[in-house]
Amino acid sequence: MLAYNFKGLMDFLFHSLQSVRFVFSRLIGMPFAPHEMDLDALYNEVLLLPDDDPTKIPRLKGLNDTFLRIWDNPTEITRVISTLTKAIRLASDVHRPAIQSNLGGLFAHRFVISRDIADIEEGVAICKDALRRTPEGHQDIGFVLNNLGNSFGIRFRQYKDDRDLIKAVDAFVEAVRLLPDKDQGKPLVLANLGMSFGARFERFGDVADLDKAIETYDEAVRRIADDRHEKPSLLSGLEMHFECVSNASGMSQTSTSLSRHKAKLR
User: Fold this and answer.
1) Quick one: which of 23, 63, 70, 138 has the fewest CB in 10 Å?
2) Which residue segments constitute the domains of the chain, with CATH numbers given?
3) How far apart are CA 103 and CA 99, in angstroms?
């Protein structure tokens, strides 16, 4: 096994990419702080709207993105888990997969804070069930796959079971394939895929995975608009990517590959 450690970079990316998705909720006028919201009432109000109401999907997305602001507060995470559990019972078949997938993602992330093994197992199970319940061609299938990939990635870091890493890569690859190029979330999913390729390189030492990691992450940076405030985080992540490789021992075999990728960014 090579000495290239992606853990710090993966943790940095995981937290930074989740927090930036709050921008959309601000644009549509959702409350800033989740702890100031009556979560049950807000979700009930939106879910009871007819599915053909043009405001329903934007409002649901706004709520989901707002919840991502509580990533580092275990009390708020637990409160939102309770709300989403209730919301699943009210949601229509159209909106249930995304809500269920968010619920699984919250369990998985609460594990990162609590280290309660039950949380990561519940998170993976819920995300897998959400995907099973998502019809082919569903509008949220890329989002559901991305959450599933994240949950497998978190469990891999706990158990170092190679099967979880392989499943994480597969989920991200499929999420990228299914997300439309114009989807504003696609660069963030590409970044997750790049990190998973990086973890696979660290695990197995295949330089082809290093190439894929850097190329995919580079694509994420190139696809995101210059005026989106996530871009500095992605650029910083890519720079950290190069620094990790440059500082690792026994990596002379990758020098040509790294030089090529660096040149593309200049």
Assistant:
1) 23
2) 22-184 (1.25.40.10), 190-266 (no CATH)
3) 6
